[in-house]
Amino acid sequence: MTKADSSSYLENAFTLESLRDSLIRQEDSVIFSLIERAKFPVNSNTYDKSYISVPGFGGSLAEFFVRNTEDVHAKAGRYKTPEENPFFPEHLLPPVVPPFPYPEVLHPASAFININKSIWKVYFDELLPLIAAPGDDGNYASTAASDLACLQALSRRIHYGKFVAEVKFRESPQDYEPAIRSQDREALLKLLTFESVEEMVKKRVAKKAMVFGQEVSLDTDDKEGNYKVNPSVVSRLYEEWVMPLTKIVQVEYLLLRLD
Amino acid sequence: MTKADSSSYLENAFTLESLRDSLIRQEDSVIFSLIERAKFPVNSNTYDKSYISVPGFGGSLAEFFVRNTEDVHAKAGRYKTPEENPFFPEHLLPPVVPPFPYPEVLHPASAFININKSIWKVYFDELLPLIAAPGDDGNYASTAASDLACLQALSRRIHYGKFVAEVKFRESPQDYEPAIRSQDREALLKLLTFESVEEMVKKRVAKKAMVFGQEVSLDTDDKEGNYKVNPSVVSRLYEEWVMPLTKIVQVEYLLLRLD
């Protein structure tokens, strides 16, 4: 594939309409990953720093797992695409694949916007206790792998705010420029908030949690409401964390858009 | 958690009824993973040995990715549970976690039953072209990560045949012993085949592909049938590969059950 081919492939994908489609599609990924994590009980040894023994490493198995898996992903080139942001960006290993001509649609400084520390904290401290049942089945490695899938799906979704902010800015720069020039976070946040859209998203993700988390059998549909992840938790996840964190990404992006 | 706690937790999980529930639940995981892979086009560079440059390594990015991720999973203890089987078992790294007292329910020799080479071949040669659209978006690392999720879900599901065979044997050893003593593969295969059950599984996984792969929106349900993975492909996956490979695992297991 030539540079022209791949650039046009990706440039075409970069409209407000297609970003919306991507965000909606990413809801499915987020919910699938939560349902998969909910297969396992809490498995608290995964998060207990005293459980593992790695010389010179003081973190939990979950952190060990994410750091080491990110090494593999970095070698495979994952963090060269502007859509992906690592949880441990300090010592990224160089890729073993040639550079790919991703179209440069974002402001270059946006590469430094990374709120994965907040996402990590929200995921482990707030969300996980709401989706995993108490208990221990010893499947700590698979548990950590499911945690990573959730973290990556949430991180990708939330940092997509960079693209959303860029497209919104391009569509009506005059709306954003005054607030950017005065570095007015609050004014930007107001410009980016559409309550009716947010209400719709909350309802849609709850519905998706019902559809994807139901027991599907041949005779009857699941009328008992034994969903694998509580739909109201998914709705709350979006209301309290995903949408506010996305807006933080958008605001941070816009603040440097004219630099 | 004490040994007694965790053993009873897992022993309780080990009945024909609970195995059935697990197999049904694993269908969801398999289908989620296929839907997630179908987000990306084929991205053939992921499978092209000439695309990556790693001194001393002659495989594709997909193989590099799976081998290196399995190293991390092995360190996290994944392959100590009898439910998991690595794709590259030759050089498994030792875990950084203490041993977990998984109950010993399987015949010890079953640890050597591993048909992941066949699963690998079926996945890349047969299944992948049926679920990924032609094209290239440069997301090779994420593509390889989705491939690994599919491979792991399929491998876990298919090797669960070991547990199914063990429980079936325990329930009526007299049915299986003659065929085992005469090492009669064909007779065992016949004992393990229930066509009406297989028909039901094929229908159920197709229905799940429709439910999980539909476009969920607030106003209407998806009546257009634009499923993210073709339900008939999922049905065919189970008919032609998952169920036959599971029966191979079951037969191999039973053949050594009296050793």
Keywords:
259 residues, disordered N terminus, 59% helix, homodimer, Chorismate Mutase, subunit A, mainly alpha
Q: How would you name the CATH homologous superfamily of chain A?
A: Chorismate mutase, AroQ class superfamily, eukaryotic
> At the third CATH level, what is the topology name of chain A?
Chorismate Mutase, subunit A
First and last CA, distance of chain A: 34 Å
CATH architecture of chain A: Orthogonal Bundle
Q: Bin the strand percentage of chain A.
A: under 5%
Protein name (chains A, B): Chorismate mutase
Main location (chains A, B): cytoplasm
Keywords (chains A, B): Amino-acid biosynthesis, Aromatic amino acid biosynthesis, Cytoplasm, Isomerase
Enzyme class (chains A, B): isomerase
Protein model, in words:
The structure is a homodimer of 259-residue chains. Chain A is mostly helical and 259 residues long. Chain A has one domain: Chorismate mutase, AroQ class superfamily, eukaryotic (Chorismate Mutase, subunit A, Orthogonal Bundle), CATH 1.10.590. The N terminus of chain A is likely disordered. At the A-B interface, helix 1, helix 2, helix 3, helix 5 and helix 9 of A face helix 1, helix 2, helix 3, helix 5 and helix 9 of B.
